[in-house]
């Protein structure tokens, strides 16, 4: 009988810097009080409408990109993803796509890898580059 690989240990999804993966950590009364107070503040903010927990629609994205961003670029999903194909790009904003490199000092590329013969699964990797009108950059 051949043992099944990977069943003798847990998946290491947390970085080693976390120190441990325990679900039985004790929390002090002081910390529980802080958590409770912050939860109550969160509930108040939700009631006031200063936080939004609804579904983000395409209209929300478009309004944000058009009114709060200097430029936004991200990869689009292509149902015909084939290995080593460059992902198509969505772009909106006043900085032309051809000038993002010179203006923001960065380049981007998102290419589907090759997991094996017959791999036709969609590319899960993507990128997003946004320059907000307040000068902040968000790069994922």
Offer a concise description of the structure.
The protein is an alpha+beta fold. It contains three helices and four strands; from the N terminus they run ααββαββ.
Helix content: 25-40%
E-strand count: 4
Shape: extended
Calculate the mean pLDDT score and round it. 81
Structure, described:
It contains three helices and four strands; from the N terminus they run H-H-E-E-H-E-E. The chain is of the alpha+beta class. It has a domain of 82 residues. A four-stranded antiparallel sheet has the order 2-1-3-4.
Characteristic key phrases:
four-stranded antiparallel β-sheet; single chain; 4 strands; 140 residues; 3 helices; 26% helix; alpha+beta
Tell me the layout of helices and strands.
Elements: H1 29-48, H2 58-68, E1 69-75, E2 89-93, H3 100-104, E3 128-132, E4 137-139
Antiparallel strand pairs: 1-2, 1-3, 3-4
